[in-house]
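A reminder before we start the practical. When you read a complex entry, don't treat the lines as separate problems. The point of joint prediction is that each chain is placed relative to the others, so the output describes one connected object in space. Small molecules and nucleic acid strands, if listed, are placed in the same frame. In the example below there are two entries. Take a minute to note the order of the lines before looking further.
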Amino acid sequence: MTTFAWVIDQTSCIGCHACTTACKSENEVPLGVNRTWVKYVERGAFPETRRDIAVLRCNHCADAPCVKVCPTTAMFKRADGIVDFDTSRCIGCKACIQACPYDAIYIDPEEHVAEKCNFCSHRVDRGLLPACVVVCPTESLVFGDIENPASRAAQILASRPTTVRRPEQGTRPQAFYVGASAVALDPLAPAHGDRYMWADRRTGGAKDYTAELAASQAGGGSGRTPSVGRSLVGTALPVVTGAPAALGAPRGPGISPTLPGPDPLMAAGTGAAPVPVDAAAPAPWQGPVDPDLVRPGTRVAYDVFHPRPWGWKVALYLWTKGIGAGAFGLIFLAAALGLAPVDQITRVVAATIALAGVGLTTLLLVADLKRPERFLSILYRPQRRSWLAIGAFILVGYSGLLGLWWLGTLVGVGEAGVGEAALTALGWPAFGLAVMTAVYSMFLLRQCEARDLWQRPVVGVVLVAQATILGAASVIPALLVLDAPAALVDVAAAALLAGGGLNLAALLAGEAFADHPTANARAAAQLLVRGPFAGAFWLGGVTLGGILPVLAGIAWLAAAAAGAAAAPILLATGLAAALGLLWYELGFITAGQAVPIS
Amino acid sequence: MTTDRTNGRRPATDRQATDRQATDRQATDRRAADHPANGGAMQPGFDAFPPPERWYHWTELDPKAWPRREEHDYTLVPTTCFNCESACGLLAYVDTASGEIRKFEGNPAHPGSRGRNCAKGPATLNQAEDPERILYPMRRVGARGGGGWERCTWDDALDDLAGRIRAALARREPNKVMYHVGRPGEDGFTERVLAAWGVDGHNSHTNICSSGGRAGYAFWMGYDRPSPDYANAKVIFLISAHLESGHYFNPHAQRIVDGRRNGAKLIVVDPRLSNTAAQADEWLAAWPGSEPAILLSIARHLIVTGRFDRTFVERWVNWADYLGAVRPDLETPTFEAFVAELERLYGGYTFEYAEAESGVPAAQLERVAELVGGAGTALAAHNWRASSAGVIGGWQTARCLFFLNVLTGSIGTPGGTSPNGWDKFVPRPPYMPPHPGTWNELTWPREYPLAFFEMSFLLPHFLLEGRGSLDVYFTRVYNPVWTNPDGLTWVEALRREDLVGRHAALTPVWNETAWYADYVLPVGLGGERHDLHSYETHAGTWIGFRQPVTRVAAERAGRVVTDSRETNPGEVWEENEFWIELSWRIDPDGSLGIRRWFEAPDRPGEKLTVDDYYGWIFEHSVPGLPEAAAAEGLTPLAYMRRYGAFEIEQDVYGRHDEAVQATGPGVVVDDGAIYGPAPAPSPNIVPTPPAPRDAEGRVRHGVVVDGEGRRGFPTPSGRLEFYSPTLAAWGWPDLAVPAYASSQVARERMTGPNDFALVPTFRLPVLIHTRSANAKWLTEIAHGNPVWINPDDAARVGVASGDLVRVETDIGHYVNRAWVTDGIRPGVVACSHHMGRWRLGADAGTDRWASARVELRELPAAGAVTPAGEEGAGRRWRMRRLEGVRPFQSADPDSSRIWWRDAGVHQNLTFPVHPDPVSGAHAWHQRVTVRPAAPEDREGDIVVDTGRSREIYREWLALARPGPGPAGLRRPEWLLRPLRPTADAYRIAESPDAATGPPATVTATAATASPPTPLARRPQNGHRHDR
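Here is the predicted structure of the whole assembly.
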């Protein structure tokens, strides 16, 4: 049994970046992305300042989330413990990046596929050490089989205390650090400024809001943390007054090397009595320059950029998926449960809306792939544990049944008594798949181990609620245009009310006031609920997607007699709620990726 | 695999005198046990490198095709990195199908770098593949500096330059030819060329770099650098940043870490938190320039507590010279009297005094002093640059640091500090041209008789004030306009065709200086040229062989290559062949006596080839190499082509204590020195001060120590010179012992509320001056140089991190961003010198990976300035950034992926020259005023008044104490000097070529000092070249 692992000795690493360039050279890694990089973190007040260094890269987790989430087996774990990848299988879905809690994976800008450190497996298989290990001037990078007691890695593990990055993620990382500083390994400990000590900092990634996070953690708004135990010694020099000595002239405590001669100080034979040093006696230390001066907190002095892999297309996909599931689900349920009469045209329109939603969902999914032409490989070479692959099958299955149901409705089988039963029989599995279409993203997001905000079960509740609201909101215009029976409009209004209520409860209880289990989730929730994405949360999700549909639904149902006069209100509510939910999804997706993980 | 070629090694321990080698350190350049390159195994069954027996045919899997197993065939050719001075080994993987270089790894056979590299090693590939590099010779069109260029042939350039040089030699104006080198990266080849031409035309960058530190060491021991044995040290004391930069960074960092793994304590002095300081057990954040106060307080502690090595000091320090000169009143000059003098001299240097000077708490200083005192003879100490390159009198930092080595007796010991000359091997070339019989006062002016290297950075001032002119000026991988202080004065001088007749820039890439050249001649990078070198990376000696790797690969494939241009990219040439060809064209028929030095040793009349040159050296001048080669059935040259390096000796210690026969034929003892017949020439011509001779012409073999003959040190006294009679006799009696001087950034000169001491010299781990800007992987990591400022100061000045600040020097200002950090002492600001590359052309001038496009304007003269247009008066300049770094289209798709915009700010333009009056080193630190940027300021703005820079030049010139010294000498003959001229040329009266400098006023400061020790009339034939 072989388990290859990293042992990274930060007690001897000098932060020289040789591993970075050796890796770029060996693996032909383009500019802008890195398989291994060096991070510097500065802490402490002068002169107790420290600069901690950490070499960061793939951890070759024993329980590798990137492998689990990969829909096409492009990421795979070898028997020797190496988490390797096959770029020819990669579709560029970026799910592995979302799954990796260590920022180890990137999309190669040349090939548009996911890559990362693979222990230089092309070398390992030929009995050569990885390139970074070979180049390291101080042998701080150790590669070896930790099951083999003769390996240096196993010996270090047996003899010295080691730590791993983010153990709370449960991935069982196989990169063991010796003497690493907690602030260098903990991505949330230091803040990132506008730039690094010798490099620009790119924006748009996970490190844009760390100063706000630091401020929120410190309980203040200044972005700076008060200095703790700051030593005054060594911070200030005594004030020097008087004319300076001539440039380059000897300077000393009253004694200069002397020669017999004209210098009177120098009279020969005067013995060796030390001359007093009044002139240069040390003056008292100055006090602190400003006692109220606060120090910048621990901050990152050097790091590399990691983008937010998912953007508006994914948020929109969650939204269109809600329409695709909800429009059919609502109408089918109303008909199947006999809540209201549903005529053929209404069914056809609702199914059309649902088909459009699902179709758009699929298009968005494909469009977000870096290698969209390989999309079908999800279907013919699926990785069965990946919810991206499972979701694809759900979408395909749902689209198929929905299409049959639509066709059946269109050709009029629903008008005949027997046909109605057949459609209903067909509709129930379609409905089941609609629910799964709405909900499966919860499992996909749960596989995104890097994003703790997305790990909450409440996400599933929100997805169902949103599908309900979006289903109602998308069919209400049609119902009004088609002059649908009031009972059916009532059902839609009730759906708005129920979905809104559920959404409101889930958002408030599940996100705004929940006790998030990890620091990463707390930080992301902070950004979403009280930070830069609070608008999406409170206005989009809570107000437009929760309070508004609840109030409108209650109002509608309470004043059913109002009839058509209130219809524009219902219409507007649906539209506003839908837009609010899209706004919320944008915030939810972005905030989840706006917390540094490396 | 094995790289442990013991047949090449010669342990030197048998030569050690053992009577005082009391140390518990095991002497070894410790091979980290688990690195396969060093004979161990990190992981059973794994290697770090392909086994050498398979280097000619090696197959590797393609990482891009992986996991598909696509194989490529390579031939592995060793060469040497050409980035920093460490000269680490590289192994080029040359694809046998395409002939292209796939990558550079470390060379496991290299004793200095031991198979490992810093970030710059692998990035050599970027430089080779840089789409911005110069591939063909270029000739200026239009005005110099106007930016017009056309492609020309090498023949055009060679004929023009050779004709001009020949004419200058014919006119008996040899000093109109000057070769100005950045880092040579080789030992002796080019100096031999200049000697063959008979010109004193060597000029180096060293006086803006290491010469201050060198002078401090040289006045002690003759050798000008330390060679610390970090791996075996108990205490490592660095006034440098050797874990990230500094001379021999990677080899030294390896051994510092080896030492620390073995328990050594690391002490680092630096006002700025370098990565090295960040790793230290004790970081002493001293005020810049106050280091001697700290060091002398530690010395005082050792002295007054009696914790110094009395035996060593008594045996090896020239204390008797001191007492003789300073205490002639003593009837019996005893060692005890000397100790009393030490107490008198340094008694005032209490920890409290040092704290007041440096800001380092006395308690910490005491802790450090205790560490030093407890190091025994295993104190490895190094001063590289830092304040020795920063302040006037900075050479005393090195001198005071070495004082600690002297006091602890940790010189030449395992874990101690050796002279660099012991750990460096420069093999003697086939035949040596004579010393040039001329003295060049443009490089060695009378004002600076002790200048440790050429006064290179004053050259434009000398030219502009009419001291002389140049017919042919070579800059060779050197960029003085950018690298030197006061670059716009360089621009003013280089634009003048009457002062610089032809300027040929030998460079692999465009740079700011090449823009002002007449020819830009593309020379090879690390994998494209031959060079031979050796550096003091540890207690042992080795040579490294740089090779044009595609040429070697082609030859392995059976191709006959007679010129490196046949296999290099474009028409890139190697310098060796260039200089040989140029020399032949200077003297085509041999009538000038130049050509014969460039003929094959075994084929008179035929042109010397690189194979001839190095083949002869490897066969005749490298002990053990012929035998090692024969054991593998190879010629010595073939052996070096195969392995790229050879270890000559290991465990070199205690050379000074080697026994010398005080009796024998022709051997006499006179005044404690042993003289005898001149020894046979050594195959090692490492720079060493010439041995003194007695009146009969006998050569000093050694000195008598405790009644026994010992080799000693190459100083006038043969001992370590605590008291330097040379300094005393040449005008500096007050600085003749380790002392502390008042610097231009002394705290009492900080009179304004916004005044700061600027530390502008620090390197970053991934860059090396202007050489590495074309390495995209390095520039991606580091591309900005914000001004470091302490939070207290930032609050006082009113700036936050990222804000623009205006940094005002004595001659102008620059505008840069602030980096507010606790990693710097309050009152001090720092800015790395690596960044701020600029170009005047839209897409030419400097590599676009790292340069900003700027406009450079001459402004109307300000009120205080001498009117513009007046000869040599200076001008007012403004540089403004037009755009930062941008992506661009090229053959390399990465150039379109450039994501950074910063190029840094070029601060050196705003620095006036600060020549140290003793060492001649430029004192880089500046007293500056830091303010928030004004509304009109833009990032990257640079404003300079070169009229002011002229004034400051003259102010500092006035601090010098000009020669000639005793006996009408231009310079003490025993001091090292690159390209040493004949003894006659050292004497002003006897030198007909004494140039045209202004009359020097000789001050009589040395009148009372004792005369210098009698010295050689005919110095040893040893050339100086390493920096």
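Discuss with your neighbour: Confidence is low (pLDDT under 50) at residues 1-27, 863-871, 990-1027 of chain B. What might explain this?
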